[in-house]
Input
Amino acid sequence: MEHRELTLQPRLRMLADLVPPGAVVADVGTDHGYLPVWLLQHGKIPRAIASDINAKPLEHARRTAAECGMSNRMEFRLCAGLDGFCPGEADVIVIAGMGGETIAAILEAAPWTASGNTALLLQPMTKAEYLRIWLTDKGYSFTGEHLVFDKDFLYPIFIVTGGNTVKLTDEEAYAGVMLEGDPLYGMYLSQQMSRLRTRIDGLTRSGNESAIEEIRRLETLYGALAARKEKLHDHSS
Ligand SMILES: C[S@@+](CC[C@H](N)C(=O)[O-])C[C@H]1O[C@@H](n2cnc3c(N)ncnc32)[C@H](O)[C@@H]1O
Output
């Protein structure tokens, strides 16, 4: 029987490239199951567990696995976050395509993920700065950070494990932890600066006295990111 061959969009492809060969992968919030099925189809991993909080996406993942001939190497779990998982079941846990706060809530409910034995690949769609601070406050440390451009937008991907050594400043939370060498870093700084500018403009327009302090904080952050960008420019010219 002919099996379907998957092609991944750049965001999922970057995640796939960051999975170490031979790892057992848990894909939390798998939706169509494209990432684990692609990894299996390309012989990069031996086994995967795909989970989702909703039945319909998990059904889609089952269908993708069947169409690609990978059902016998996958398990499917209907559960919230990591509720249906035991420590040590997977070498790599991927939580991608969700908001930074949702990713933090999933990890908060599974404190064993901060023990240091499991690698986490996290890809927040929003609130990356919130998630960076949350992770380092809660005892996780960054072993890598990457950027990927997909459908007009730049997404950071965090490689994280348990065992925190450093607390982050506000500036690091916005600018990224290990992105300095990334070819898309300048673009990421611009994206973050433009988000800060929108926020500052909104607060300024509100005319609210109590926002003055926050505006000052965000302006300082904006200036710090602009200085980083300037430095990048100096190095490249
Ligand atoms: C936008 S899709 C992302 C799919 C895929 N991970 C990706 O990066 O393309 C988000 C998926 O996460 C699931 N989801 C949302 N909150 C979840 C939670 N707390 N636990 C497990 N799955 C969740 C949704 O049902 C949905 O299928």
Notes: The radius of gyration is 19 Å.
